[in-house]
UniProtKB/TrEMBL annotation:
Segments traversing the membrane: 23-39
Species for this entry: Pontibacter korlensis
Family (UniProt): Belongs to the transferase hexapeptide repeat family.
Molecular function terms, GO-annotated: O-acyltransferase activity
Gene3D superfamilies in UniProt: Hexapeptide repeat proteins
Key word Ribonucleoprotein present: no
Keyword set, alphabetical order: Membrane, Repeat, Transferase, Transmembrane, Transmembrane helix
Domain of life: Bacteria
Cellular component terms per the entry's GO annotation: cytosol
InterPro entries cross-referenced by the UniProt entry: Hexapep_transf_CS, Hexapeptide_acetyltransf, Trimer_LpxA-like_sf
Listed name of the protein: Transferase
Keyword Repeat: yes
Length: 189
């Protein structure tokens, strides 16, 4: 059997974002850099929520977004009650990213709701939403891939890489992330 010669041809790559989206993104980046990034850590939460809402985010009044967070498209972000995006989180939300009630995304995590179709010679952009359900905790420096749902109450250990859904109330870790144990509370409070 003879293998047909294949070649990648990125000269035919087209940006999937409309000119309008590109312009709004540019304005968003300037606004965040001038009016939110200079604020220390979690100070000015109300102001940052206002800026995010101004650009279409659905964000609860108790949600916390740190100043060093990078949000690609605020109009594709939804944060519920007491949700948190910690310092230096990179939210590449070309598709929708939802952070549930009481859910935390820890520092330096990368939420990646897009990739490229490597089976096509032009490598077009592909997207799928990310959902972090209620009470989940994403540890430090985690990678969450496109189309992933992290179930209610689940914990993703630091530096894990998640490419498949995480079951509710499960602790996962590693690269690729694998189940470690069930999450159970042991306190008497």
């Amino acid at each position: 059997m003879q293998i047909e010669e294949q070649k990648v041809n990125l000269s035919q790559y087209k940006n999937a974002l409309s000119k309008r989206n590109q312009l709004v993104r540019l304005i968003w980046c300037i606004v965040w850099a001038l009016f939110a990034s200079p604020l220390p850590r979690s100070i000015g939460s109300g102001w940052k929520r206002f800026l995010l809402r101004l650009f279409g985010a659905k964000i609860h009044s108790t949600a916390v977004v740190y100043s060093s967070v990078r949000i690609y498209m605020p109009w594709n972000l939804e944060m519920k009650e007491y949700a948190c995006l910690a310092p230096e989180v990179d939210c590449y939300n070309v598709a929708k990213v939802t952070i549930g009630n009481q859910a935390t995304v820890s520092q330096k995590t990368y939420l990646c709701a897009a990739s490229h179709n490597i089976s096509h010679p032009h490598s077009p952009l592909i997207t799928a939403p990310i959902v972090i359900e209620d009470q989940a905790w994403i540890g430090a420096d985690v990678f969450i891939g496109m189309g992933v749902t992290v179930g209610e109450g689940a914990v993703v250990g630091a530096r894990a890489c998640v490419f498949k859904n995480v079951e509710p109330w499960t602790v996962v870790g590693g690269n690729p992330a694998k189940a470690i144990k069930k999450r159970e509370f042991s306190c008497n409070d």
